[in-house]
Design brief:
two-stranded antiparallel ribbon; mainly alpha; membrane; transmembrane helix; about 60% helix; Marvel; MARVEL domain-containing protein
């Protein structure tokens, strides 16, 4: 007689993670939605920075805050773009890159909201233009944060492949 405590069916789940740990240039990343979004984020942040810096009021505290936020966004996003282009993210696949990017995008979007809201009402045309680009960058970073949240919830890798296979085996008890 079969053991009453042992189930008649069991499942086996196998997760296979495939990554190439060599550093290589991959220009196709810029053509994918993640790459295009990073280029848009860098461009909007940099144009907003230029708008603020082209006035004599750039030394105002709100101008300095906006410039700090926009340059932080340009540099971190630029470094991440280079990491993705050269598959450094894939080489260091054990680092939770998606979680890092999610928190970065969410925080920088909030900082752009605050900075753009501070420079918009000052009545300086260049600051108003900078606020427009800041709000646009906020939307771009918010969209990226949403994509990273969805990827984080699904357990996706930042780069590389993960295949999950599930096998079920049914056995009938012997009487």
């Amino acid at each position: 007689m079969g053991d009453a405590g042992f189930p008649a069916q069991h499942s086996t789940t196998t997760t296979v993670t495939r990554v190439q740990t060599n550093i290589r240039y991959d220009p196709s990343y810029i053509k994918r939605k993640e790459g295009v979004l990073k280029v848009i984020q860098i461009a909007l942040s940099f144009i907003g920075f230029i708008c603020i810096q082209c006035t004599q009021f750039s030394i105002h505290s709100t101008g300095k805050w906006f410039s700090t936020v926009s340059m932080f966004g340009v540099w971190v996003t630029g470094i991440l773009l280079v990491f993705y282009l050269f598959h450094i993210i894939e080489k260091c696949y054990k680092i939770p890159w998606i979680k890092f990017e999610f928190f970065f995008c969410a925080i920088i979007a909030l900082c752009f909201l605050i900075a753009s809201s501070m420079v918009a009402p000052l009545g300086i045309p260049a600051f108003e233009a900078g606020a427009f680009f800041g709000f646009s960058a906020m939307v771009a970073y918010g969209i990226d944060a949403y994509f990273k949240y969805v990827a984080m919830r699904s357990g996706a890798l930042a780069q590389g492949e993960r295949q999950i296979t599930k096998e079920s085996t049914v056995s009938t008890p012997k009487y």
